[in-house]
Amino acid sequence: MTATDVFYRYGVNRLGVYLLPIIISTVILKLRKISESKMDSLPFIIGSIGIKMNDYECKQIVLFKSISETENVENDVYYETFLSKGFNTILIPVLDFDFINIEELTIKLNNHKNYSGIIFTSPRSVLGLKLSLDNNDNKEIINQWKNHTNYVIGEKTEKLAKDLGFITRGKETGNGDALAELICKKSFEKPFLYLIGSLTQKNFKIKLEKNNIKVDDLVIYKTKPHSDLEENILKLKLEINDKPAYFIYFSPSGVNYTIPILKKLNYNFEFIKFVAIGPTTEKQLIEFGFKVFKTSLEPNPKYLLDSILEN
Fold it and tell me: In this structure, what CATH number is given to the domain that contains residue 76?
């Protein structure tokens, strides 16, 4: 065996042993640089070599929520919060509403002495009440309700009620279960006027009545899917194109209306992390067979952001 043969048989093999770790380290560093500078191409690389995407690398947020007539996408507080933190944020309007039973609501409002107070569990319930107030000849109606014990869920609902002149409690509770516990700590002789939508679940009312809190619920708005929902979800599919994304849901009805469309359009759920606002929305996602990545217990954009970012 010549010296050359010895070199190629042993020298090259040993050289390979020394160089292999360096080559592997170089490849990993290159991939990290790609992940920082070119997120658009990463999903396909990750899928092919089996590297798990870290949470902080996922910068796509999709908000499935309703927008009131007084808002647009740009001034939605959730949209602004995630956008300001560097997330690629898309808002898909999920729901439309039709107000109903406004005349009946007006009659009940004028009979304020029959009630302990009003319970608002959504911004839409406040907007329905405003519609009644705008058509009410009794301009003192707000002052007549100020001495009542009125409750709300969430900061947005509280702000809308406050803008109308209502004094409320419970904005910090964040969800129906917590609000029900707060209300049940006291005793009330008269019922509460409970303003709800057509798809509002009965759990809240049942819990109050089990604790001897009387409830007079009135449906003042009908919930329906947004007219452009399927078209917007198709555009979303073309936009994110299997990129890792957080899909954030704000209501069970939002889940019910969108998931069948997502399945119909063959969305790749492997790249989606589902986030729920509140336990009832979480439960609805689970019923569709999805694992919920995070559940925000409060309808608050900062709380939601912190829930997603915490590991």
Answer: 3.40.50.10090
**Overall domain count for the chain:** 2
Q: Is residue 176 part of a domain?
A: yes
First to last CA, the chain: 60
Do the domain assignments include residue 207?
Answer: yes
Confidence at 108, pLDDT banded by 50, 70, 90: very high
Inter-CA distances, 182 with 156, 175, 186, 211, 228, Å = 19, 11, 8, 11, 39
241, 297: one domain: yes
Amino acid at 171: K
Residue with the bigger pLDDT between 243 and 32: it is 243
- Residue 284 CA to residue 259 CA, distance in Å, equals 10
CB 204 within 8 A of CB 129: no
Task: Write out the residue range of the structural domain in which residue 111 sits.
Answer: 98-225
Tokens at residue 103, please? 């005349």
Query: Cα 121 vs. chain centroid, distance in angstroms?
Result: 15
Last residue in a domain, options 201, 225, 249? 225
Do 187 and 283 sit in the same domain of this protein? no
- pTM of the prediction? 0.66
Starting from the edge strand earliest in sequence, which strands make up the sheet with 272-277, in order? 88-93, 60-65, 245-249, 272-277, 292-296
Asked if residue 201 and residue 102 are part of one domain, the reply reads yes
Q: Is 311 or 123 the better-scoring residue by pLDDT?
A: 123
CA 102 to mean position of chain CA atoms: 28
pLDDT in tens, 289-303: 999 999 998 888 998
**Positive or negative: CA dihedral 28, 31, 37, 43:** negative
DSSP 222-283: EEEE-TTHHHHHHHHHHHHTT--EEEEE--HHHHHHHHHHHHHTT--GGGEEEEEESHHHHH
Residue 263 covered by a domain: yes
Torsion of CA 20, 24, 25, 30, to 10 degrees: 140
Spatial contact of 133 and 164, defined as CB atoms under 8 Å apart: yes
